[in-house]
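Supplementary Methods. Inverse-folding protocol.

Structures were first reduced to a discrete structure-token string of length 483. This string, shown here, constituted the complete conditioning input.
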């Protein structure tokens, strides 16, 4: 039998079921980009919040990429199994999803949901490249979804277009605006999204809407953290064993979860703190800590690990030399952070323990995606601060060199980077054994490597390490780096 609203707990199966009746709760959130991470994170927190008390906060999910998620969840009335893989797997049934919208007529159905009086939050997990925003502020008119929605603002299908039109319709109908909540791993995500939505609204709808959004709509920033690998046949088999039901929408994640949120929700919000979320006036210090210590070391180990034959993050941590480089990177990143009310050494200990968890099959190749989008905040920003403080830049130079080596050759695997064509063009006439030439070619990529890192000590340190990787191979280069 397939998991659905007709299903209930079975004797002998340890899975936990929702502590409320999902169908008795109305929808209060529209979520754009309902992938595995959203189901392991915001939906799980929302499920916990509703179990802790009353509240009409079920989520209407929107799948912008295809219909697979909708086809899996809708026949199950939105229910799915969330498996947390620690020493032994633990399963819970999440009931926070009310349904999923997908397909060719997506736009009108999403706008209809956004203009319901009960909709008080529109949340998003589409990864940075899914928004069409510029780090310098505003929307990227060259982004395909942005370009299409600028031509047809009343019939949008992209993130910025849907939010702007949804707000326009609410204002026209006399409804208060919803809060716009980015849950993507993007620094200052609320600030950047606000600038992009206002810019899009000005271009597509005119200054009046842009000014109302600027004056009336909240865009709180968040910091999210939970490793969520892709579901596999094992995920579904374990879900069946733990629940007694077939579940095509089952996902798995790690036991650890962190969510830091700026508490600005004029229209109300779920009691996410009941599920462990931390509400703060300013998320920036926590965001910087995670980006530099966790995400930065993640990127470094992804490139170095993949190129040395390590399929999973736990394989990296089982290698003494690589594990030492991961710890070194975290220590160097911590030294660039402002004062924060956290024990950063203890945080590094927790990160290393999470990375070493053999129950989480987190592929290095998956983490290595979208390097040109990730390195500026994860590696380059702390490298600049390390230089300014007179600290050793070797950890950041090693990570940069590993990325450059990865761009050169991945053994037939795709690069999966939004600037892939630019990278290929930059390297087209560059000798593959010349580390200095390769560094110069990639450093010249527009709006990528900061001027302060393109020459001098950082450049020299990166070229030295890239040269070792090219001449010795990645495994020997790792051992030479680890000393």
């Amino acid at each position: 039998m397939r998991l659905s609203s007709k299903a209930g707990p079975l004797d002998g199966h340890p899975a936990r079921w929702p502590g409320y009746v999902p169908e008795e709760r109305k929808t209060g959130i529209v979520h754009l980009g309902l992938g595995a991470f959203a189901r392991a994170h915001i939906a799980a927190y929302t499920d916990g919040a509703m179990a802790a008390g009353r509240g009409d906060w079920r989520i209407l999910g929107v799948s912008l990429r295809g219909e697979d998620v909708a086809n899996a969840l809708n026949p199950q009335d939105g229910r799915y199994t969330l498996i947390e893989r620690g020493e032994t797997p633990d399963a819970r049934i999440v009931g926070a999803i009310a349904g999923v919208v997908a397909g060719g007529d997506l736009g009108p159905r999403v706008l209809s949901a956004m203009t319901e009086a009960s909709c008080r939050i529109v949340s998003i997990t589409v990864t940075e490249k899914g928004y069409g925003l510029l780090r310098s502020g505003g929307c990227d008119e060259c982004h395909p979804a942005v370009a299409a929605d600028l031509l047809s603002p009343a019939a949008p299908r992209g993130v910025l277009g849907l939010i702007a039109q949804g707000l326009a319709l609410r204002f026209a109908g006399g409804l208060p605006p919803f809060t716009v909540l980015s849950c993507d791993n993007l620094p200052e995500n609320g600030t950047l999204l606000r600038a992009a939505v206002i810019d899009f609204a000005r271009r597509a709808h005119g200054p009046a809407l842009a000014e109302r959004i600027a004056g009336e709509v909240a865009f709180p920033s968040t910091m999210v953290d939970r490793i969520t690998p892709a579901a596999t046949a094992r995920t579904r088999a374990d879900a069946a064993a733990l629940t007694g039901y077939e579940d095509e929408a089952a996902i798995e994640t790690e036991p650890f979860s962190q969510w830091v949120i700026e508490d600005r929700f004029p229209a109300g919000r779920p009691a996410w703190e009941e599920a462990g979320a931390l509400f703060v006036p300013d998320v920036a210090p926590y965001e910087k800590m995670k980006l530099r210590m966790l995400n930065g070391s993640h990127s470094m180990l992804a490139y170095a690990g993949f190129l040395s034959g390590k399929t999973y993050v736990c394989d990296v941590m089982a290698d003494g030399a690589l594990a030492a480089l991961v710890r070194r990177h975290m220590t160097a990143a911590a030294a660039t952070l402002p004062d924060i009310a956290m024990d950063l050494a203890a945080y590094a200990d927790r990160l290393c323990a999470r990375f070493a968890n053999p129950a989480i099959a987190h592929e290095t190749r998956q983490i290595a995606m979208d390097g040109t989008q990730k390195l500026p905040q994860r590696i380059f920003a702390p490298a600049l601060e390390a230089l300014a403080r007179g600290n050793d830049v070797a950890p950041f130079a090693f990570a940069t060199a590993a990325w450059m080596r990865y761009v050169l050759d991945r053994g037939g695997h795709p690069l999966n980077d939004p600037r892939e064509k630019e990278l290929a063009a930059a390297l087209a006439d560059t000798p593959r054994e010349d580390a200095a030439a390769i560094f110069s070619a990639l450093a010249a990529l527009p709006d990528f490597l900061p001027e302060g890192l393109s020459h001098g000590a950082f450049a020299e340190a990166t070229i030295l390490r890239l040269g070792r990787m090219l001449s010795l191979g990645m495994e020997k280069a790792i051992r030479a780096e680890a000393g």
